[in-house]
Amino acid sequence: MSVVDKLKPAFLEHPGTGEVRYKHTFNYRKIWQMVILLTAAVTLIPLIIITSIDYNVTQQSIESEISLRARRTASNTKRAISFFVSERRAALDFIVHDNGLKALTGNERLSTILKNLQAGFGGFVDIGVINDRGIQTAYSGTYNLGGQDYSDQAWFTKVVERGVYISEVFLGFRNKPHLVIAVKSRLDQGAFYVLRATIDTDQFNEILSSLELNGKGDAFLINRNRVIQTPSRHHGDVLSTVDIPVPEYSDRTRVKEYQSPDYEQFVVGYAYIPDTDFILMIVKQKAALMKSWYATRSNLIGFLLLSITVILGVIVFVTTYLVNQMYFSDRKRAKAMHRIEYDNKLATVGRLAAGVAHEINNPLAIINEKAGLIKDIFVFREKYSADDKLMGLVDSVISSVARCGTITKRLLNFARHMDESFQTVEIGTVIREVLGFLGKEAEYRSIDISVDVPETFPTIECDRGKLQQVLLNIVNNAFFAIESEGALSIQVKQRDDKYLTVTISDTGCGIPEKELELIFEPFFTKKSDHGGTGLGLSITYQLVEEAGGCIKVQSEVGVGTSFIVNLPFKPKKRKEAKTCESF
Amino acid sequence: MDATTVLLVDDEKEFVDTLAERIGIRSLCPQVAYSGEQALEMISDTVPDVMVLDLKMPGMGGADVLARVKAAYPDVSIIILTGHGDKKDQVLVEGMGASGYFQKPVDIDLLVAKIRVLG
Fold this sequence. Notes:
Shape of chain B: globular
Oligomer: heterodimer
Number of helices of chain B: 5
CATH architecture of the domain at 62-289 in chain A: 2-Layer Sandwich
Distance between the termini of chain A: 19 Å
Radius of gyration of chain A: 59 Å
Helix content of chain A: 40-55%
Strand order of the largest sheet of chain B: 2-1-3-4-5
Radius of gyration of chain B: 13 Å
Largest sheet of chain A: 6 strands, antiparallel
Number of strands of chain A: 17
C-alpha cells in the first residue's frame, strides 16, 4: 500500500449511491467537491478582489505621485531658468535706458558696465552695441570684435523683429558653450540700436545640476531641434542630439511617459521656457522610481499566494476529514439500520411462526390421538391386527403427524429466546456429535467426511445446544447440496487469541452469486419440496451473531460452497462484538 | 393394587376423550375434566394418583391449577401436556412441582410409561 493510498480518504473509493446491501443517500465525492469549491469561492474571491483593488489603487497612487513630483520639479526649475534669463535681459534693458546710445558707444563706459555686470551677475563674457545696420559700433570683452557686421545674421533679424533675442547655446570662438542675449532700443525716427551680451552657461548649468533628482533623474535643456543645451547625465553631451523626441508644445508644465527603443520607460516632465527656444526636460527612469512599488508589489503577491495556499490547504483538509467522518458514520448507521431491520424481520417471523405452530399443534394432537386410538383398537381387539394394509395406513398417518410435529417444534424453536447457558465445550466433540446424527446418511449417500481439528485446541465457552444447531444446520445444507458422492470437510483453526474459525466446505452444487445475499434471509429456501422452512440458515445467522461471531459464505456454482464461521472463545456482548467487515 | 387413577384436564374435548380412551385401553383408570375449575371440583371428590394437565385453557389456566393442587394435595404427581409451551414454561412448571413435561402431539407410549413410573 503506497503513501497515496493510505492518505486517500475511504469515501473517494466509494461508488456513491446504489450499493445493494447498505443504501447510502449521499454522493460523498460530489459533496466533497461542492464543499471545497463553495468554500474556496467564498473565501478566495473576496480576497483576490480586495488584493487586486489594493494593487491597482496603490499602483495608481504611486504613479500619480511620481508624475506630480516630476511636474513640480519641472515647474520650479522652469521658473528658476526663466528668472535667470529675464533677470539678465532686464539688466540689459536697464543699461540701455540708463546710459543711452552716446554713453554706451564711449569705450570706457562699456567696459565699466561689463566689469559691473561680471561683479554683480557673473558669467558675462562680453558686451557690444550694434547699430541699425548691423555694425558693431562699440565692444568690450576678450575679443576684439569692434566693427563686426551682423546684419545678415539670423539673430539680428530676430532681435529687430521682436525687440529681444535670446540665443541657443553655441560654442563660441573659445570653444566653450555660451549664449547671447540681445535687446533692441528705439531711437527717434525709426532708428534703433541693439545691446548684445554673451553669457557663458556655467551658472545656467549650475541651476540644473544642483537639482536633487531621484530615480536616476536628469535635468537639462534642449532646443526645439532636440539639441542638448546643458550637460545631461544620461542622455548625451552638450550640443549632441538627445535620444528623446521633442514633446508637443504647451505653455504649461506637463508630464509624459516615453518608452525608448530598448523598452526602457521614462517619465518626462517638460516645460517650454517662454521667450526662448529652450525646453526644460526632467527625465527620470520609471523603473528606478517604481523600485519601492515593486518591492511592495512582490510582498503583496507573495502574501496573496501564501494565503491562498494556506486557505486551500485548510479547506481541503477539513472538508476531507468531515466528509470522511460523515461517510463512516453513515456507513455505521446503514449497518445498524440493516441489523435492526433484520432483527425486526426475524422477530416478526418468529411471532408468526409461533402463532402458526401453536394453532396447528392442537388439531395435530387430536389427529395423533385419533389415529393412535384406531391403532390401539386394531392392536388390542386383534380383529384387524393381522391386516397389514390397515396397520400400514394408520402408521403412515401417525408418522405424518410426527413429521408435522417436528416442523411445528422447529418453528417454535425459531421464535424462542432461551436463556443463555454457557458451558465449556470442546469444539471437536461437538462436531463429532453433530456428525453422529448424520453418519448413517453420509454412509448411505457415500459422502466422504473429513474433520480437521488441531489436537490441543483450546476449549471454548458457549451454549452447547446453539453451537450444535449452528453446525447441524450448515452440515444439513451441505448434505442437501451434495446429493450423492461428494466430500464434506470441516476445518477448525485458531484465528487469533480471541477468535476461532470453523470452515465447512462441501463439493455440492454451489450457490449462484445473486442468491448469496439472500441465503440468510428468513423463508429463502431451495428445499421447499423436501420440507425446508427457509429458516435454517436464518436461525444459524442469528445464533452466530448472538454469540458475538460472524458467518460468511463463499460459493461457486458446480464447485462447492464454504461456510466460514468466526466465533469468540469467550461469549461477547453485542456491543463489543466485531462486525463481519472486520474479519 | 388398584389401577392407577389419572385425571386428564384439557379444554379440547376431542383430544382429551380420545386420550382417556387410549389410556383406559392400557389398563389405567382415566378421568376427564374439561376445565381447571371442573378438575378442582373432581379432585375434592376423589384424589387421583396422577394428573395430566394442559397449560392454556379458558378460565383457570394450567399453572393456576398446578399451584392449587400442589398446595392442597402435595402427593398428586402432575404431568404437563401442552401445545403452547416452550423451554421457559418447562423450567417454570418444574419449579412449581410438575413431575413431567410433554409437548403435543405426544407419543402415547412415552406418556403412559411416565404415568406408570409416577403412579
